[in-house]
Design goal:
single chain; 257 residues; mainly alpha; 2% strand
Amino acid sequence: MALAWPTWRAVRVWQRNLAVFRKYSLPSLLGPSIGEPLLYLLGLGFGLGTLVGTVRGQRYVEFVAPGMVMSSAMFAAAYECTYGAYVRMMHQRTYEAIITTPLSLEDVVAGDVLWGASKGTFNGTVMLTVVSLFGLAHSPWTLALPVILALLSLLFASLSLVVAALARSFEFFNYYLTLVITPMFLFCGVFFPVESLPRWAQMMAKFLPLTYAVEASRALMQGRPSFDVLLPLLWIVPPLLAAFLLAARLVRRRLIH
């Protein structure tokens, strides 16, 4: 059966997930999506930063802060659309229950992707607020960061749902989180400039979307936006659309035999 485009009813799936989230919102905020990036900011930014000095003319903590904001969104979207989506898809049978209503399977996939992206954007915005309270965001251009957070979160929500549709157990996610998400966290300019990496790692970083999100957010927080750092964000859109369509196809193949 050919894929159909999702409709406005996908919002109903988003609303359902929001209602469930309200019951455990505090543990979610204290988990890996916000808690770990905040600890990295405090431990590396303020701790290691006292030894490092300046990077690109900034205090190290100011250099690290934009990457912590973006990685917080990435982790939140990735966790929600792997573990969370897998539970809804395979254990709770939520997907199967919803498609007995007028909603299509594409509506369910779109609603789950929107939910994962919403969590990523929300968590990233919370992290941005914390960073601002520490006095690490000086430019009014910082207010534009939620747009980048939303775009990045949509991408990782879609990619993660592809993984969830392929997974046969929770252990499968270890490959994705260890071999895809963690390398992005380490080699996309969060903790040190990409140009300081070996040549092969610099080439790899050019193909990773988090690199462009971190560079753009760093430029905005410094008050130095330019087309050179903002236009590359458009390269996130094609893989985002491809990942969503692939997720919809894989979920359909898994649930509708």
